[in-house]
Design brief:
Elements (H helix, E strand, L loop, with lengths): L8 H7 L25 H6 L19 H14 L3 E5 L2 H12 L5 E5 L4 H10 L6 E5 L4 H7 L4 E7 L11 H11 L2 E5 L4 H4 L9 E5 L13 E5 L1 H15 L5 H11 L2 H20 L4 E5 L9 H7 L6 E6 L4 H10 L4 E2 L9 E7 L8 E7 L5 H11 L1 H4 L1
Bound molecules: pyridoxal-5'-phosphate.
The site of pyridoxal-5'-phosphate has 13 residues, from α4.
Length: about 400
């Protein structure tokens, strides 16, 4: 049972999982060891029987480690799930989750705006093992349900998606999937558990690239998966033990440290994202702005139902689609840096050529991540670079 004194995310993040303080150290130590030893054979043998804290004994750091435990206890509680595990990357968590739900002959349904490498795993890699898929836009529940077949074993969601920020109906999907015995998974990296907890709507596996908002400082690559203990025990015997994608203790410690400021950073992210949205909508160079927090978002009702806030990742469709000019725009930026990823301290820009379902042609969008810099400085930077889109 979670300790009732830690009801709110801000308190959970600072204290949960840190009740035991070796030597009174206020910050949890880094258990930089690969294995754990036992006083006697009885302890050794029984150590394999219980996976769940607090009675669990650690054996080997590929499976569990006390430093990882701290991060995992917090992430599970924040997501409102029984259990969580951290991984060496978001993709390690995503691949373990996907493989845990399928077998040869299975079919899965995935939103076509999900994170690129997750889609690639599904469309290019899984067919080798006889696992087929259908991509859906995910905008209508009926579309997702209609894509399911008798052999469908997994519905993979990312809401809002991290390119054009479309949402999917968690509750509707979870209700249908439970009736059919289909497992559901959702990538929650964009929102972080501060702004969305898909588990409350019945989603089975919650996934994170902890590299992004959770760790938040662009100094660690990590992933997380939250689910029930029943599912986690199976994952620990299979995909976690066999694929070996565990996070190492030091990056787990960086993740714990980064997460301390998650509530503050997400508050800033919401303000900064909304302010940048407003600024971009007034620009003559901009055709359309994609932002989960847009008041006129086509899925506003669903977003308000599922989310407590929206973050600072957004994109825009520039009127100018000339490749050379778009390159000059990106090169002219001084504060925004050109790079993938997001969720850290630094603002980033990445031009992407995309063709989501429903678009008749491939078009360039510019994805912006708003970091922790001053908003006026960032606007001035974009203002001077946008001259390249007019000339
Ligand atoms: C970055 C990202 C991932 C992958 O995470 P890694 O930590 O880079 O492996 C998954 N989903 C989304 C939405 C991402 O942005």
């Amino acid at each position: 049972m979670p300790d009732r004194t830690y009801q709110h995310p801000e308190t959970i993040i600072q204290h949960l999982g840190e009740e035991v303080k070796p030597h009174g150290a206020v910050v949890p130590p880094i258990y930089q060891n690969s294995l754990f030893v036992f006083d006697d054979t009885f302890q050794f043998e029984t150590s394999f029987q219980v996976q769940e804290p607090p009675d669990r004994r650690h054996n080997y750091s590929r499976i569990s480690n006390p430093t990882l435990d701290v991060a995992e206890a917090k992430i599970a509680a924040l997501e409102g799930m029984e259990a969580a595990k951290v991984f060496g990357s978001g993709m390690a968590a995503i691949s373990a989750a996907i493989f845990s739900a399928v077998e040869a002959g299975s079919h899965l349904v995935c939103v076509d705006t999900a994170y690129g490498p997750a889609r690639q795993l599904i469309s290019d890699y899984l067919p080798r093992f006889g696992v087929s898929h259908t991509f859906v836009s995910g905008m209508e529940l009926e579309e997702i349900i209609g894509a399911c077949k008798p052999e469908t074993k997994l519905i993979y969601l990312e809401s809002p998606s991290s390119l054009i920020f479309q949402a999917q109906d968690f509750e509707g999907v979870a209700k249908f999937a439970k009736e059919k015995g289909i497992v559901t998974a959702a990538d929650n990296s964009y929102s972080s558990p501060m702004f969305q907890t898909p588990g409350e709507f019945g989603i089975d596996m919650i996934l994170h690239s902890a590299t992004k908002y959770l760790a938040g400082h662009s100094d660690v690559v990590a992933g997380a998966l939250a689910c029930s203990w029943e599912r986690m025990n199976k994952l620990m015997n299979d995909e976690i033990a066999l694929f070996g994608g565990a996070l190492a203790p030091f990056p787990a410690w960086l993740l714990i440290r980064g997460m301390r400021t998650l509530p503050l950073r997400m508050k800033h992210a919401q303000e900064a994202g909304n302010r940048m949205f407003e600024w971009l909508t007034k620009r003559p160079e901009v055709d359309m702005v994609f932002h989960a927090g847009a008041p006129d978002h086509p899925m506003r009702c669903l977003i308000e139902k599922q989310m407590r806030g929206t973050s600072s990742l957004l994109s825009f469709l520039p009127k100018c689609q000339d490749e050379a000019k778009l390159r000059r725009f990106s090169d002219a930026l001084n504060i925004f840096q050109l790079g993938v990823s997001w969720g850290g301290f630094e603002s980033l820009c990445v031009p992407l050529k995309v063709k989501p379902m429903g678009w008749s042609e491939e078009r360039y969008i510019i994805r912006l991540y708003i970091g922790l810099e001053n908003a006026e400085d960032l606007e001035r930077d974009l203002d001077q670079a946008m001259a390249e889109l007019r000339s």
